[in-house]
């Protein structure tokens, strides 16, 4: 129950009266309690899921390394006694275990984004882009890519390593899915309504609109491994990092007409100025 009281001044000089109102808020309190309970359960469930992913991926690494090691040892010591088909079976098994190790390693990284990230600090995105392009220098030269960016890019508050991971994943995708054209990639940023809007635009093979949501789901691929290498986790990692920073990420694209990925990060300086 909630008791409200206020005075009411009557006309003709009569004495003021106090008006009391009693409101039954039982339903509202029950709804609030249920919401708090669901929130706590959801947080606990997410924490349990992250811990499970970490333990499972960590504990699976060792047996996979053992399997891969013994298979390679078998091929080295006894390969000459096997026929071509036998050696091919061993090679395919080794490649399968190595691929599984990569998947588990990616899952481990994905599960640790929320719990093992660095504290937020002032981050210069221009420096991050310069370092990212240096890391991708070999791929840029191999594809004859042209990569440009707004200079300067903004300084924001965030986990510098994770922000760098977002840029590296998105630029790597632009270099990979370029089709027959030499990649032409541009990174830009602009301030809008309390946040920074970043875009990574390319002239690659594009994406069908029906896959705009699917590509951000973990281990989802639109192409076979023979067409394009990778595990299909890069964009899921980007989404998780951006959401950790309080932003959102999406894509605009047309087949054979290039792709633009957008993501936002709160403009902390603007938010503080408005307080």
Describe what this molecule looks like in 3D.
The structure is a single chain. This protein is of the alpha+beta class and 275 residues long. It has two domains: 28-113, Orthogonal Bundle (Helix Hairpins), CATH 1.10.287; 121-270, 2-Layer Sandwich (Heat Shock Protein 90). It is built from seven helices and nine strands; from the N terminus they run E-E-H-H-E-H-H-E-E-H-E-E-H-E-E-H. It has helices spanning 26-78, 84-111, 125-135, 137-142, 160-176, 234-244, 268-274, and strands spanning 2-8, 17-23, 121-124, 146-149, 155-158, 184-192, 195-201, 249-253, 259-266. The strands form three sheets. The protein has a five-stranded mixed β-sheet with strand order 4-6-7-9-8. A two-stranded antiparallel sheet has the order 1-2. Strand 6 and strand 7 form a beta hairpin. Helix 1 (26-78) packs antiparallel against helix 2 (84-111), helix 3 (125-135) crosses helix 5 and helix 5 runs antiparallel to helix 6 (234-244). The longest helix is centred in the N-terminal third of the chain and has 53 residues, at 26-78. It is extended, with a radius of gyration of 27 Å. The mean pLDDT is 84.
